[in-house]
């Protein structure tokens, strides 16, 4: 899925470097060809600007409609270049991390039972969860319809259950699913990733999210050395939840996107 690998400037003894890959999942859901810059490197904002101008021109020739780029907020030279090239800010995210030094026991069973999700659990969880906004870049992008965004949420949850995540834990109240957490394990780096956390609307305010999160940390504690979770910078409730569970803020990022169609290089 790599569409473009590099642009070099040997004349000035510098290398401007970019890797552009196709986003097959987003492209299918939103019925347009979408690419993502997975890595870019330059020395100055001007070099980044030239890089992204050239990238937009080549991307149009590749038939792409959108290009996405997530960049650390500390990368101001690249951010200035993205904005100067016509990329629009769609999302600001924050990542929390927790070190895992020894195996942990999950919380003792109380009013909430936490177990591995079943197909019936997912069938009960998905419909109400896809109807509520996730406050993500998908809702902010006018190029995507509400139905497409709901379809993306639905597939994301089902794909997590069907193998994207190594575990999907569900919290059960009164015999019914009340919340969930998806656990991804990067075995080579021994880093765990909590991809999705959610509480069903009727179960909110009953401590479901904190309990399933504690079980997820315990699950990771025998498999990983560190676990991370990302959320939107404006999601103060989620940030508070993670900090109370022993996570600390470790990174922040900004996601930009540009509509390629009809754009000329050098014009924002």
Descriptive key words:
single chain, 268 residues, alpha+beta, 11-stranded mixed sheet, disordered C terminus
Describe this structure in words.
The chain is an alpha+beta fold and 268 residues long. It contains 8 helices and 11 strands. The chain has an 11-stranded mixed beta sheet, with helices on both faces.
Protein topology:
Layout: E1 2-9, E2 14-22, H1 24-30, E3 34-41, H2 45-61, E4 66-72, H3 76-85, E5 88-99, E6 113-116, H4 119-131, H5 137-140, H6 146-164, E7 167-173, E8 176-186, E9 191-199, H7 208-221, E10 226-232, H8 236-244, E11 248-259
Parallel strand pairs: 3-4, 9-10
Antiparallel strand pairs: 1-2, 2-3, 4-11, 5-10, 5-11, 6-7, 7-8, 8-9
Helix pairs in contact: 2-3, 4-6
Summarize the structure.
With 268 residues, the chain is of the alpha+beta class. The protein contains eight helices and eleven strands. It has an eleven-stranded mixed beta sheet with strand order 1-2-3-4-11-5-10-9-8-7-6, sandwiched between helices.
The percentage of residues in β strands lies in: 35-45%
Parts with pLDDT < 50 across at least 5 consecutive residues: 263-268
**Total strand count, please?**
11
Q: How would a crystallographer describe the biggest sheet?
A: 11 strands, mixed
Which strand order does the major sheet show? 1-2-3-4-11-5-10-9-8-7-6
**Mean model confidence by pLDDT:** 90
């Amino acid at each position: 899925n790599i569409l473009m690998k590099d642009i070099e400037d040997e004349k000035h003894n510098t290398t401007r470097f970019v890797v552009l890959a196709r986003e097959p999942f987003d492209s299918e859901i939103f019925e347009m060809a979408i690419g993502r810059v997975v890595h870019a490197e330059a020395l100055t904002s001007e070099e980044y600007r030239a890089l992204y101008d050239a990238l937009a021109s080549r991307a149009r020739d590749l038939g792409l409609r959108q290009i996405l780029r997530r960049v650390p907020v500390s990368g101001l030279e690249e951010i200035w270049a993205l904005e100067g090239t016509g990329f629009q800010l769609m999302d600001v995210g924050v990542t929390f991390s927790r070190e895992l030094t020894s195996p942990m026991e999950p919380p003792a069973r109380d009013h909430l039972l936490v177990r591995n999700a079943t197909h019936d659990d997912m069938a009960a969880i998905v419909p109400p969860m896809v109807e509520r906004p996730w406050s993500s870049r998908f809702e902010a992008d006018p190029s995507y319809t509400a139905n497409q965004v709901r379809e993306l949420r639905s597939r994301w949850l089902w794909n997590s259950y069907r193998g994207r995540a190594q575990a999907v834990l569900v919290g059960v109240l009164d015999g019914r699913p009340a919340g969930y957490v998806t656990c991804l394990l990067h075995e080579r780096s021994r880093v765990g990733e909590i991809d999705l956390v959610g509480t069903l609307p009727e179960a909110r305010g009953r401590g479901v999210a904190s309990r399933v999160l504690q079980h997820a940390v315990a699950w990771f504690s025998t498999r990983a050395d560190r676990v991370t979770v990302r959320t939107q910078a404006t999601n103060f409730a989620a940030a508070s939840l993670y900090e109370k569970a022993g996570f600390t803020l470790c990174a922040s990022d900004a996601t930009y996107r540009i509509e390629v169609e009809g754009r000329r290089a050098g014009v924002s």
